Amino acid sequence: MKIAVLLKMVPxxxxxxxxxxxxxxxxxxxxxxxxxxxxxxxxxxxxxxGGEEDEVVALALEGEGNEKLLFTALAKGASRAVQxxxxxxxxxxxxxxAFAAALAESSFDLILTGVQSVxxxxxxxxxLLAARMGLPCVSVVTGVSVTDGGATVNKEYSxxxxxxxxxxxxxxxxxxxxxxxxxxAPVSKVRQMQQTATxxxxxxxxxxxxxxxxxxxxxPPEVGASAKMxxxxxxxxxxxxxxxxx
Amino acid sequence: xxxxxxxxxxxxxxxxxxxxxxxxxxNRMWVPREVTEYDFTFLDRVTDLSGGESMGWCxxxxxCIGVCPVDNVGSYGPRKLYRKLQIGLxxxxxxxxxxxxxxxxxxxxxxxxxxxxxxxxxxxxxAILNGNVPGELQEMLQNVAEYGNPMGESARKxxxxxxxxDEPVRDLSKEPGEVDVLWYVSDYFSxxxxxxxxxxxxxxxxxxxxxxxxxxxxxxxxxxxSQRLCGETGLFEELAEHNHALFEQNPHERLVxxxxxxxxxxxxxxxxxxxxxxxxxHYTQFLAEKTEQLAGMFTGExxxxxxxxxxxxxxxxxxxxxxxxxxxxxxxxxxxxxMFRCKEQGYCCGGGGxxxxxxxxxxxxxFERLSENRVREAVDVGAEVLAVCCPYEVSRFExxxxxxxxxxxxxxxxxxxxxxxxxxxx
Lengths: 246, 426
Ligand code: SF4
Ligand code: SF4
Known about the structure:
Chain A has six helices and eleven strands. Chain A is of the alpha/beta class. Chain A has a single domain (2-218), classed as HUPs (Rossmann fold, 3-Layer(aba) Sandwich). In chain A, the strands form two sheets. In chain A, strands 9-8-7-10-6-1-4-5-11 form a nine-stranded mixed beta sheet, with helices on both faces. In chain A, strands 2-3 form a two-stranded antiparallel sheet. Chain A is globular. By secondary structure, chain B is an alpha/beta fold. Chain B is built from 19 helices and eleven strands. The structure holds iron/sulfur cluster (2 copies).
């Protein structure tokens, strides 16, 4: 079995986020990036699914910090790591086009990615990629088991409703959580990978992404007027009278 | 003569020798029995590791058990581990691997020099490489790897504690240049609310004394010693390289640290990697040399009954018992009392060797926290204040004061806070 995992760096929320001068994007100057948490789960699920014979390939678009990210994936147990070059980082549509071009070359049985990422919360990469490749897609996945020629997949709906799907492979899955918490990559292993392993590079043309959502404005949330604490029932009554309720 | 001599491989239920009945359990020990013929597979796995060798030197005298702080609140210690390894414990995948706080008390008494400070990191390193890391510890390691501090706080906010604090502090990341004292602030003094209280006290004391000091600011990273003892060797090396480069870039006469763990790292561990000797002092050592100057400057008193907890990494690991006591005794009006377990025999707070981030796991295998045990002792000697000089301890002991129902009876203060309180406003 061959499993692809798509990884992406997102702004790390330990830093204060600031909007840049265009008013449409985050100021990347002061940002620190980290692996999207859901992608970490996708990687973990892939590593749990992949046995001795299987191949787990981690893919990421070229970008700051992505080499370290891919070496970390190798340290955790991925068999290969591929960085896609020649793509302008854009929205989910452009990313889907780039990944589709990269994945078309080789025959994967499963393509896993995080259900969404903290930067746009769109959750569109999986579905758009599946559409581009003509594959089935299940998102919000919390469990995968591979069967003969297919996979049984658990999907979580709102209100805690769970559904079980049978999917034919190859398929694209948007992972919400792996069956175990993502494993730790010992620093010595990461360093060893940095010295001994290579990250393959694959050039994919900027083929455009189709319809994209466009950010028209970005602003920090407005701070609401603070709540007023009332001391006693009389004060409450006064407020209610003022509102014409009592 | 009976014929027992000729049948020594036969176990006898009844043994009568020369008419005397000597039947009893002991007569079955004439020949080796199965239970004394061990399968050494599991022990060998430990002793085969570089650093794990001394586990095999144990001759089961049990000296160590009486002094092991974890055995005091549960069942643990090198001899017990040795015995379990003989009868098939897979230490690489067992909670016993994470209970040792590397307090060094067993090594102090062990006639055979069985060294848990070597054994634990060696076995833990393999466990981590095999993916066996307790969840709470993994979170800490990930934070340190990602942000350079165990709390997972932004590295850029390492100097945020200086906000709304108008004492001068030279941040060498902004104002480079030579200083007499390069003060390594450490994680807890930078980020933990109670650590920040102590860090501010340190600044005030330094400034009153006219110390020419600077800090590394947002570039400073965790010293890595506890991570090393947790078995994360690669992370320790990365941090050591980072901090070493900063020490080289910022010329200074001496390195003064707030944290005994950092002291141990810079004094004993960094040199093995970098080949450099650091002129390092724990802050109590640096200030103890200035006791006379301090004494002449005290304007206030501290008229309270105070006891002192020796940090394992200043005391047993590095033999410094006097500097903190010199400072405490110099405080005007103080009534100093020792606890029974002090100096070489000091009890461990439970935070060393990764224990700081293993409270959940440890709680499952002990009947009370080490810090709780220690707090009870401080209350027993009648202390109103438990003085400490390790940044791990204030939060640990304050929690323990609450959980042992001693809230209001015992206050936990860093020595630097006590000194600062007697120095007045300028
Ligand atoms: S003191 Fe040393 S030799 Fe004695 S039981 Fe403990 S580890 Fe073994
Ligand atoms: S180092 Fe301390 S905690 Fe560890 S076994 Fe020895 S006495 Fe016990």
